[in-house]
TrEMBL record:
<dbReference type="GO" id="GO:0004553">
    <property type="term" value="F:hydrolase activity, hydrolyzing O-glycosyl compounds"/>
</dbReference>
<feature type="domain" description="Glycosyl hydrolases family 39 N-terminal catalytic">
    <location>
        <begin position="20"/>
        <end position="515"/>
    </location>
</feature>
<comment type="similarity">
    <text>Belongs to the glycosyl hydrolase 39 family.</text>
</comment>
<dbReference type="GO" id="GO:0005975">
    <property type="term" value="P:carbohydrate metabolic process"/>
</dbReference>
<protein>
    <recommendedName>
        <fullName>Glycosyl hydrolases family 39 N-terminal catalytic domain-containing protein</fullName>
    </recommendedName>
</protein>
<dbReference type="InterPro" id="IPR049166">
    <property type="entry name" value="GH39_cat"/>
</dbReference>
<feature type="active site" description="Proton donor">
    <location>
        <position position="196"/>
    </location>
</feature>
<keyword id="KW-0378">Hydrolase</keyword>
<dbReference type="InterPro" id="IPR000514">
    <property type="entry name" value="Glyco_hydro_39"/>
</dbReference>
<dbReference type="Pfam" id="PF01229">
    <property type="entry name" value="Glyco_hydro_39"/>
</dbReference>
<dbReference type="InterPro" id="IPR051923">
    <property type="entry name" value="Glycosyl_Hydrolase_39"/>
</dbReference>
<keyword id="KW-0326">Glycosidase</keyword>
<dbReference type="InterPro" id="IPR017853">
    <property type="entry name" value="GH"/>
</dbReference>
Length: 552
C-alpha cells in the first residue's frame, strides 16, 4: 500500500475536503479514443516558421497516434505574410485573360511540415481566392485585438463568382496532393469545406442554401480527383444546430447543384463547441457549461438520423471560448490562458465530451484544440496558445498526459459531485470543486488523469484525494506521478518570478524551456501490488492536474 501526501503534513491533509475515487481496471468500457490528438489555428504561415516547426514537432511526439492539424486561410490570395487571423498561399490567380494560374509552393510548405512529422492535414477548402470572389474589394483584412471581430470579413469570405473554375481549382489541388504525397497518404486525410458558414465567415444572406451549393461543387471536385477521399462539413458554430440539421437533410435528400442527382457525399460531420468565460469582480469565471451544451446540441441532432449511424464526428474547434488571437489586455476574461486554469479546464472537459459521445451512441473521433502559437508576439500576452516564443505553456502538458493514455477506458467511480449533465445544467459553480478522473489500461500499463477544477479562477482549498486502483493485472509495477500546478510543469510562474522579462537572457530562456515540460511530482518508484489493489492519498491543489502511470 502506498500513501502520497504533498505540500502539507498528514494532519493538515486530513483537514482538507476528501474525495474518494475508485478506478477498476477490470471493468473496461471500450477503446479510449484519442480525440485530443487534433489541433488547429488561423494562421497557416506560422506552420513553417521557427517556433511553429518546434511546436509541431512536440505535438507529433506527444501522441502515439498520428496528430491531425486544421488550419484556416489555406486558399487565400497573398504573398504568405503571416498576421493575426490571416494567412495566404496564393494557390490561385488568373492571367489578364482570366485563365487560371495554379501555384502550390506555399501550401506545399505547410503540408510538407505536417507530413515530415507524420501528422495529417484536416484539409480545409477555404477561403475564396481574390480572383474568384464575388466581392473581392477590399480583400485582405488588417484586424488587431480590440477591433470589432466583423472587420475580418473582407473579400475572402464570399462565395465564388464562377463555380466551375472553383471546382476545377479544388480538383487540381487534390490531384496535386496525390501526386506529391501518394494516394494512400491522401486517403488518410479529411477534406472539409469552409468554416462557420452560419456566422461571419460566409457573407451572404441565405447561408444554408449557398453553403450547400458550395459543398456540392467542392465534394464533387474532391471525389473526382480521389473517389476514396473523406469529405465532410459543415463546421457550424456551436449554436447552429438548425444549420447542421439542414445541411444533413440536403446531403441525404435534396438535389445536388453540381451533379443534378439527389444527395451529396458526407464521410464525416463537423461542428464547433465553445465555452464562455466572463470577467466578473476582478476575476475570471469560466463557462464550461456553454461548451458542453454545444456538444450536446449537435450530438442530439446527428443521432436523430439513423442513416448516419457511426458516421465520424469532428469537433472542429473545441475550446473555452472563441478568439485565440484576443489577448487578456483587450479581453480580460482571457487571463485564464497562461496558467493552470486552462490546464484543469482542458483536463475536465475532454472526458465529459467522451461521456456525451457515449450517451448518444455517436462517434466523435476528434476534438480540435484551437490553439497553436503566435510568432513575434509579447511573452505570455494571453493568447490562446500552447506555447509562447517557443516555451510551452502549462496546458500543453495536459496533452502530454493524455498522450500516455492508451488501450481501453476503464470505469471510474466514487463520491464525485459533478458529471456532464450537472455541468451542462449549472456549470462548476458550487461550493465543491470538480475533482474527478479519466483512466485507461492496456496490457502493460495503466494511466489515471486527475483534476481539481472550478469555474471560478480564485485560490481555494487543496483537495484530499483517496485514490483506489482495483484489479491491476500485476504484482509489481513502476509508478510515475506527474503534476501540473503552481510549482510543476508551469513556465508562466517561473517567468513571473524572473520579473516577467520580455527579452529573457539565454540562461533564462533555457530555464523557461525546462519549466514548460511535463514534470514529475516525485521520483519514479518501484512498488508492490497486493491483491490487485493500490491505494494512494494525493493532495491536489485547486486547478491542478495529476497523472498517475503504472507500468508493469
Amino acid at each position: 500500500m502506498l500513501f502520497l501526501c504533498c505540500f502539507a503534513t498528514l494532519s493538515v491533509c486530513a483537514q482538507q475536503p476528501t474525495v474518494s475515487i475508485e478506478v477498476d481496471a477490470g471493468r473496461q468500457k471500450g477503446a479510449l479514443k484519442p480525440i485530443w490528438a487534433w489541433f488547429g489555428y488561423d494562421e497557416p504561415n506560422y506552420t513553417y516558421m521557427k517556433d511553429g516547426r518546434k511546436l509541431l514537432s512536440e505535438l507529433a511526439a506527444l501522441s502515439p497516434v498520428p496528430v491531425y492539424v486544421r488550419a484556416h486561410n489555406l486558399m487565400n490570395t497573398g504573398d504568405g505574410t503571416a498576421a493575426l487571423k490571416w494567412g495566404s498561399t496564393n494557390m490561385y490567380t488568373e492571367d489578364k485573360d482570366g485563365n487560371p494560374i495554379y501555384s502550390w509552393n506555399i501550401v506545399d510548405s505547410i503540408f510538407d511540415t505536417y507530413i515530415n512529422r507524420k501528422m495529417k492535414p484536416l484539409a480545409q477548402i477555404g477561403f475564396m481566392p481574390e480572383a474568384l470572389s464575388t466581392n473581392p474589394t477590399p480583400y485582405r483584412h488588417y484586424w488587431k485585438p480590440g477591433v470589432n471581430y466583423k472587420e475580418i470579413c473582407t473579400g475572402w469570405a464570399y462565395p465564388p463568382k464562377d463555380y466551375d473554375k472553383w471546382e476545377e481549382l479544388i480538383f487540381q489541388w487534390v490531384t496535386h496532393c496525390i501526386q506529391r504525397y501518394g494516394k494512400k497518404e491522401v486517403e488518410s486525410w479529411y477534406w472539409e469545406l469552409w468554416n462557420e458558414a452560419d456566422g461571419y465567415y460566409l457573407m451572404v444572406e441565405d447561408k444554408v442554401k449557398v453553403y450547400c451549393k458550395m459543398y456540392d461543387y467542392a465534394s464533387a471536385a474532391v471525389k473526382r480527383a480521389l473517389p476514396t477521399a473523406k469529405m465532410g462539413g459543415p463546421h457550424a458554430t456551436g449554436g447552429a444546430g438548425e444549420f447542421m440539421r439542414k445541411f444533413i437533410v440536403h446531403c441525404l435528400t435534396e438535389k445536388n447543384e453540381a451533379t443534378g442527382k439527389i444527395g451529396a457525399p458526407i464521410d464525416f460531420l463537423a461542428f464547433h463547441a465553445k465555452g464562455y468565460p466572463k470577467f466578473i469582480d476582478n476575476r475570471v469565471r469560466m463557462g464550461m457549461s456553454n461548451q458542453l451544451k454545444d456538444v450536446n446540441r449537435h450530438l442530439k441532432i446527428i443521432s436523430s438520423f439513423p442513416e448516419l449511424k457511426n458516421i465520424p464526428v469532428i469537433i472542429g474547434e473545441s475550446d473555452p471560448e472563441g478568439c485565440a488571437a484576443c489577448g487578456m489586455k483587450t479581453d480580460p476574461q482571457n487571463a485564464y490562458r497562461n496558467g493552470t486554469m486552462y490546464s484543469s479546464y482542458t483536463a475536465a472537459s475532454i472526458p465529459r465530451i467522451l461521456d456525451l459521445d457515449e450517451q448518444y451512441g455517436t462517434n466523435i473521433i476528434g476534438a480540435v484544440n484551437w490553439s497553436f502559437e503566435f510568432e513575434n508576439q509579447p511573452w505570455f500576452y494571453g493568447f490562446r496558445e500552447l506555447a509562447t516564443n517557443g516555451v510551452d505553456k502549462p496546458v500543453l502538458n495536459v496533452f502530454r498526459m493524455l498522450g500516455m493514455m492508451t488501450g481501453n477506458r476503464v470505469e471510474v467511480s466514487g463520491n464525485m459531485a459533478y458529471n456532464a449533465k450537472t455541468i451542462i445544467d449549472s456549470g462548476v459553480r458550487g461550493a465543491a470543486t470538480d475533482v474527478n478522473a479519466l483512466a485507461s489500461r492496456d496490457k502493460k500499463s495503466m494511466g489515471v488523469m486527475l483534476w481539481n477544477y472550478h469555474d471560478e479562477d480564485v485560490a481555494g482549498n487543496t483537495a484530499e484525494v483517496e485514490l483506489l486502483l482495483k484489479n491491476i493485472p500485476a504484482r509489481k509495477a513502476t509508478l510515475h506521478h506527474y503534476r501540473i500546478d503552481q510549482e510543476h510543469s508551469n513556465s508562466y510562474e517561473v517567468w513571473k518570478k524572473m520579473g516577467s522579462p520580455q527579452s529573457p537572457t539565454e540562461q533564462q530562456y533555457a530555464e523557461l524551456e525546462k519549466a514548460g515540460q511535463l514534470q514529475l511530482l516525485s521520483a519514479p518508484e518501484k512498488i508492490s501490488i497486493q491483491n490487485g489493489a493500490l491505494k494512494m492519498n494525493i493532495q491536489l491543489p485547486r486547478q491542478g492536474v495529476s497523472f498517475i502511470r503504472l507500468t508493469y
